Amino acid sequence: GKKYREYVLADTKLRDEIDLTKYKKLIRKTIHQVIPDIKVKVKPDKYILEKDAITNGQPRRIGRLMAQTELYEFARSRIVLFEGKEIFAI
Fold first, then answer.
1. Which ranges of 1-90 would DSSP assign to H, the alpha helix?
2. Of 2, 13, 54, 64, whose CB has the highest number of CB atoms within 10 Å?
3. 86-to-17, 37, 60, 76 alpha-carbon distances in Å
4. Separation in Å, CA 16 to CA 60, 68, 77
5. Beta strands, E only, the chain
6. What burial letters (b/e) apply to 53-89, b meaning 16+ CB within 10 Å?
7. Which residue, among 76, 83, 68, 8, has the nearest Cα to 34 in the 3D structure?
8. With contact defined as beta carbons under 8 Å apart, do 43 and 20 qualify?
9. At a CB cut-off of 8 Å and minimum separation 6, what does 76 contact?
10. Which of 30, 28, 25 is nearest to 39 (CA)?
């Protein structure tokens, strides 16, 4: 099957507190600046991208752009806003 990458907030305390679906439009818009046609699934605690569509440098570019949005406040003490891992189903 297809491979996906899911991205959760790096700050573990905030994962339960922040509902990312409230930022769905912002997250999608930011990702589409880097990868225009990719499908983005936003859930309350993560967002998911199809892995085949992502090159190595793109997540870093997306992260840098997200850090320039209102999401930056969720970086708190961490330099990293989101961290990702490979998954096989959504």
1. 12-17, 24-34, 58-66
2. 54
3. 23, 20, 16, 25
4. 24, 22, 17
5. 4-9, 40-43, 46-50, 82-87
6. ebeeeebeebbeebbeeebeebbeeeeebbebeeeee
7. 68
8. yes
9. 11, 14
10. 28
The percent of residues above 70 in pLDDT, for the chain, comes to 92
The answer to which of 25-29, 46-50, 75-79 has the lowest mean pLDDT is: 75-79
* pLDDT above 90 for 21: yes
Alpha helices per DSSP H over 5-82: 12-17, 24-34, 58-66
* Length of the chain counted residue by residue: 90
Report pLDDT digits (tens) over 73-84. Answer: 887 655 667 878
